Amino acid sequence: MPTVTVIQPMITEEKSTMIRCAAYCRVSSDSKDQLNSFMAQLKYYENFLADSKTETLINVYADEGVTGTCEDKRDEFQRMMNDCRKGKIDRIYTKSISRFARNTKDCLKNIRELKSLGITVFFEKENIDTANMPDEMMITIIGGLAQEESTSISNNVKWSYQKRFEKGNIKAFSAPLGYDLCDGRLMINEAQAEIVREIFNMFLSGNGYQRISEICSKKYFKYKEKFSFYGISYILSNEKYIGDSVYQKTFTTNNLPFKKMKNNGQLNKYHIQNTHKAIISKEVFEKTQALIESRKHNNITSEYAFKGRIICAVCGSKYKRKICRSKAFWVCRKHDNLAGSCNSKRLTESSIVEAFLRLNNKLQSNYKQILVPLQISLQDLKLRQFSSNSNVMEIHKEIAKLREQTHVLARLKTKGFLENTKYLEQTAELNSKINKLQSELKKITHLDNEDETLDQIEMLIDYFEKQDAPISEFDESAFEFLINKIVVTSQNELEFHVMGGLKFKEKIF
Asked: Which residues span the domain enclosing 89?
């Protein structure tokens, strides 16, 4: 008989561990009342678990002044979910389901994920604790109510704006380059207006969006963010510069998740003339629009689209355009000067255009499988790098305290207890500290290079989302936006370098 020895289990006394709690706060606008609400929430949760013997507050996640209907715009919410996945949080406190999520789908998705991670959520307003919830029926009902409330609010706001559009009683929301916003009215900023006039002149002189972007970014570095490809396109097509205003160019869908869409005839647009002083004459503006339209429908591109962008993989030289028997070709400069120095062959312009159209249409059909997963992976990488930094919570707290001090000063001034000079001096000092902390926060939570790549991937996704169907004609502006350069790898293949650092190869037929 074999000898069996029973090894008794080791019984150890379990150590009592504190439940690690987090709080999620959110306000839905930038108004002062909402900012007070934001600070009140932040203070509330700091004190909420101060005396608890079983729970400890490890972080407060607060999204300030952003919409709650789109989960992807809530950076702090995403940071909290990422910390949950890392096992840093055991329990979440939040004021209400509508603060946590504004639609049932996102609410259920996040609750399910948190439950799978062993993390409970307590909604104070509804008195719902997912730790004691046997199923998701209650969360579905309340989530549906929160969704309906959000939809109702959105529809009421849209109705009020619709009435203002019809009466022509609309104040300006923002000021484009060339104008300053003063009490809802656009006033010309002459220094910026000169830049706008120069941009229109450059375009009518034959320069493309990308070339104008490069020139302006170097010449007027102070306004560099205005001179992206989209920025130049926006300036050249903006009716504000002839003193008119067109409202409802875009609209938001009625159902959650709300999505902003271009108004291509689905709703009325409202064109109100002479709402402010013009910077550009109507004649110049109309010529610009005619040129933009002609470039969209020109099957054979102008030299400016490809100029300087086609590179020889053999010798590194740029290609130049040549016309032979009324047909456009692109040839390596080195080969053209001395055929024996580079064996690259010439390419017909039409074959390059056709390769670009195929690439554009392939990406348009498959961007959800290619670009969206890439965007998610880059965002997750950034969160893994920065979301665990313990300084974030302390900076948020300090910013909240400083903002509260500015509101206290404003109340003292209003009641006559503080002179205007002293008020301006002290608020300037507080705002300086706030800006410094926000810059520090940005350094902690962002990498410039990664942010730029993410921004470009997001722009690509947005571009293809707006494309209703494959394109069959060359659009010079679309090419300038998408393509940084083309490398001719062989006589039968082109490598397109797309914005965002992406590379795609396309055959030449």
From this structure: 19-153
